[in-house]
Amino acid sequence: MDQTREVPTHLVDTARSDPDAIDGKDVETLLADDREEMRNTGLKVLVGLAIDDPDRVVPFADDVVDCLDESYGLARSHAALVCWLLAEERPDLVEPAIPKLVANLRDIAPLYRFRAARAVAALGRQRPASFVDHADGLVAAIVEGPNLPEPGEPTPPDAEETIDLPEPDLARSAATKEVAANVLVAVAGEAPAVVADRFPDLVPELEHDDQVEHVRGGIVDAIGRVARADPAAAESAIDPLIDLLEDDSRLVRSRAIRALGYAEAAGAIEPLREVAESDPDPDVRDLASETADWLEENVLAS
Q1: Is 0.90 surpassed by the pTM of this model?
Q2: Residue 207: its pLDDT value, please?
């Protein structure tokens, strides 16, 4: 390759303003270049084309997938963005990227992992079974990612393991974990035993107040999916779920109640009665009462 050739950044502007003027051969040349700046420019051009029409990037799908493990972070980020834009229309072409996208959920840069998460979310909605073999990566994205306060809340001064991030990065990191949790819920629907096997790593996360509510809620829903298939498989999660009946989040409390019902947790009847009497939310009180009644009639009575 000609190492003296300047990076044609003007093509990025053209892809945004006049995508029909982009010649596919120019993109091919950029993606095949030895220099990471050139390949990244090619990916940025593809972002512009995909925003205009995802079909325009179909011929480059394999090249984009290859770029997901580039050593150059910006290239990984733009490749993930193209994958997201393409996944909505052509998930079949992006499905081979799932291992790399899941790995990128733990990228050091919040923006990069967030872009990978958007692609994972799109594929998770359409191809949940394809993530069954990547449950470990999804769990790792939840467990090994930064522990986060709720967006807009100050970082607790004694939270040694909590990362103090700028607000946009905080939101991106929280969203990435939420995606991982939600796709894990879908995996639990496809292969509940696979998720049950990850409970030793997953369930302790319910005790972390710095896991934001939608992440905790996603974990609870994954446990609930497992319990629906096999109540006994969720036994190790029952006590942590009971503890969540006092969670600050209405969303988490409601999901914990449902999961306890699916788990046929007779030991939760009395705690549920207390929630039915004292929870500040009337819908939560009603749900707790109904679940306690069901457990008494269908579990204790059997």
Answers
A1: no
A2: 86
If you average pLDDT over residues 105-116, what whole number do you get? 94
Q: Note the helical H segments in 146-237.
A: 167-190, 192-196, 199-202, 213-229
3-state class (DSSP) for residue 162: strand
What does the block give as tokens for 270?
């009395």
Contact between 73 and 38 under an 8 Å Cβ cutoff? The reply is: no
**Per-residue 3-state assignment (H helix, E strand, C coil) for 34-81:** CCHHHHHHHHHHHHHHHHHCHHHHHHHHHHHHHHHHCCCHHHHHHHHH
pLDDT computed for residue 166 by the predictor: 65
Up-side HSE of residue 41: CA atoms within 13 Å toward CB? Answer: 22
- Number of C-beta neighbours around residue 233 at 10 A: 18
SS3 at position 198: coil
How far apart, in whole angstroms, are the C-alpha atoms of residue 58 and residue 64?
10
